[in-house]
């Protein structure tokens, strides 16, 4: 009996999740079904995740953004993680990954799943290492146990680093930055210690059987991704990619939905070629990329170095972007870092959607531009990707209500406001046609994705926030630190 969206799509069934996704993307349900059936799109939707509003990840749909949350050994608890979930969803994350490595892991994950309207991903090997006590103490049985428990709990997608093989490890010897993926480094240590093949590779069919049962999407991890531009596109990276291609086919044959993770650090001129190669090797399976960072010289600004690569990757066909925050390589991000990281990545995703001609994507730009030319400041703020920041920045110098009607801002001043000068000139010269563009976003072909600031989410399903009696702005500002994967790993 078909268990997964992939199996049901292949059987010709249009599921309620496909219909919901079609509604959100303004597409025909049949187009969604066909993309899922072909393995070119996934709908991560665990049967047990009741709070989920289904979404789709695929190159033919709006580019999606993931944010990482999770408790560390030092900090956090279920309430703290709910705060992080709220922060991520509020600022437009399409999925979240719970990368917890400390605290009551199952309780934290259960709380996130109970409240998350977006798909929740995990990297099960993290919990397995915590429970084993060290990478060397991992066993296949423990890995399968953790994967089974997380699947039964409702996790929608899991990073599984099954493509890192013993024979690939020597290929990393000449690298500048070695193995930077947390999962990759754990498995490399295990293989060196035991002299045996990657247990996730050996047990791959058993893992797929568990994932199929609950319709958990597998996200094939790139354990050997480059951690510096010097290591990009090297033999180790592409050897693993070949294995990921074969595993994509095996997982899909087992009825499991598949996406594939990608690098990392890649010079700008190599990004598109990397995406093209992944899509060929993995037969069009959705590509989920971390950045990539296009230069290594800007610690403190890696949300920018990586958003440049992410834009190029999405332009070339990557389906989902894992955000990177300004704290990358430096420390644990706080709520402001999460906000900055998500803004950078939502810009990257939207810029690529506009450039790729996604129907209706540019309507948002056109509506904001029209409001800008009309000096309709309130509408500009409402339409902005981050309305709170746009309003704050404007009001820092011109806070009064009267300035919400002003035909200038403090950047050029009243005298030199070029748009005011241009409009006055057009009014004086009857021969000059006045621009007057009204864009009805509600009628846009991309209406559901053109509703800032919530991105593609149905905000009515977002967990209630703040808790009773708290002020929402204060709650946002007080959000605790948010974990990231090392190298925004896995
Ligand atoms: S003052 Fe300058 S920046 Fe401000 S609205 Fe006019 S043209 Fe734009």
UniProtKB/TrEMBL annotation:
Record note on cofactor: Binds 1 [4Fe-4S] cluster per subunit. The cluster is coordinated with 3 cysteines and an exchangeable S-adenosyl-L-methionine.
Any single Pfam family the record assigns to this protein: ThiC_Rad_SAM
Recorded coiled-coil stretches: none
Cleavable signal peptide: none
Feature: compositional bias, Basic and acidic residues: 1-11
Alphabetical keyword list: 4Fe-4S, Iron, Iron-sulfur, Lyase, Metal-binding, S-adenosyl-L-methionine, Thiamine biosynthesis, Zinc
Catalytic activity from the UniProt record: 5-amino-1-(5-phospho-beta-D-ribosyl)imidazole + S-adenosyl-L-methionine = 4-amino-2-methyl-5-(phosphooxymethyl)pyrimidine + CO + 5'-deoxyadenosine + formate + L-methionine + 3 H(+)
Region annotation (Disordered) ranges: 1-24, 442-490
Family: Belongs to the ThiC family.
Function of the protein: Catalyzes the synthesis of the hydroxymethylpyrimidine phosphate (HMP-P) moiety of thiamine from aminoimidazole ribotide (AIR) in a radical S-adenosyl-L-methionine (SAM)-dependent reaction.
PANTHER family membership: PHOSPHOMETHYLPYRIMIDINE SYNTHASE, CHLOROPLASTIC, THIAMINE BIOSYNTHESIS PROTEIN THIC
NCBIfam families cross-referenced by the UniProt entry: PRK13352.1 (NF009895), thiC (TIGR00190)
Protein's recorded name: Phosphomethylpyrimidine synthase
């Amino acid at each position: 009996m078909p268990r997964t969206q992939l199996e049901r799509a292949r059987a010709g069934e249009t599921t309620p999740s496909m219909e919901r996704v079609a509604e959100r993307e303004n597409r025909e349900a049949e187009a969604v079904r066909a993309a899922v059936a072909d393995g070119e799109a996934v709908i991560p939707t665990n049967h047990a995740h009741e709070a989920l509003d289904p979404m789709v990840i695929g190159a033919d749909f709006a580019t999606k953004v993931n944010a990482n949350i999770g408790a560390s050994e030092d900090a956090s608890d279920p309430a703290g993680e709910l705060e992080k979930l709220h922060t991520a969803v509020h600022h437009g994350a399409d999925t979240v990954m719970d990368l917890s490595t400390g605290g009551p892991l199952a309780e934290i994950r259960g709380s996130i799943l109970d409240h998350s309207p977006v798909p929740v991903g995990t990297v099960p090997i993290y919990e397995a290492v915590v429970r084993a006590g060290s990478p060397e103490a991992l066993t296949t049985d423990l890995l399968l146990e953790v994967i089974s428990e997380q699947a039964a709990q409702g996790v929608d997608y899991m990073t599984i680093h099954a493509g890192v093989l013993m024979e690939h490890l020597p290929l990393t010897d000449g690298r500048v930055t070695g193995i930077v993926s947390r999962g990759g480094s754990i498995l490399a240590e295990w293989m060196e210690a035991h002299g045996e093949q990657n247990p996730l590779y050996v047990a791959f069919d058993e893992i797929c059987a568990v994932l199929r049962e609950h319709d958990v999407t597998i996200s094939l991890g790139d354990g050997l991704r480059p951690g510096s531009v010097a290591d990009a596109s090297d033999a180790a990276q592409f050897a693993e990619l070949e294995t990921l291609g074969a595993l994509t086919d095996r997982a899909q044959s087992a009825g499991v939905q598949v996406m594939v993770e990608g690098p990392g650090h890649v010079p700008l001129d190599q990004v598109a070629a990397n995406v093209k190669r992944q899509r060929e090797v993995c037969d069009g399976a959705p590509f989920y990329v971390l950045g990539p960072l296009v230069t290594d010289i800007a610690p403190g600004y890696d949300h920018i170095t990586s958003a440049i690569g992410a834009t190029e990757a999405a332009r070339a066909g990557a389906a989902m972007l894992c955000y990177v925050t300004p704290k990358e390589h430096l420390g644990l991000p706080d709520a402001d870092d999460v906000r900055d990281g998500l803004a950078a990545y939502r810009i990257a995703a939207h810029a690529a959607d506009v450039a790729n001609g996604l129907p209706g994507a540019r309507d948002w730009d056109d509506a904001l531009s029209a409001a800008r030319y009309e000096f309709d400041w309130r509408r500009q703020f409402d339409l902005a990707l981050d309305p709170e920041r746009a309003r704050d920045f404007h009001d820092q110098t011109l806070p009064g209500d009267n300035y919400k009607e002003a035909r200038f801002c403090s950047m050029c001043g009243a005298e030199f406001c070029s748009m005011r000068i241009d409009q006055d000139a057009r009014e004086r010269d009857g021969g000059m046609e006045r621009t007057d563009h009204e864009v009805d976003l509600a009628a846009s072909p991309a209406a559901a994705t053109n509703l800032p600031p919530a991105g593609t989410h149905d905000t009515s399903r977002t967990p209630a926030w703040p808790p009773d009696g708290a002020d929402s702005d204060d709650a946002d500002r007080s959000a605790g630190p948010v974990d990231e994967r090392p190298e925004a790993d896995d």
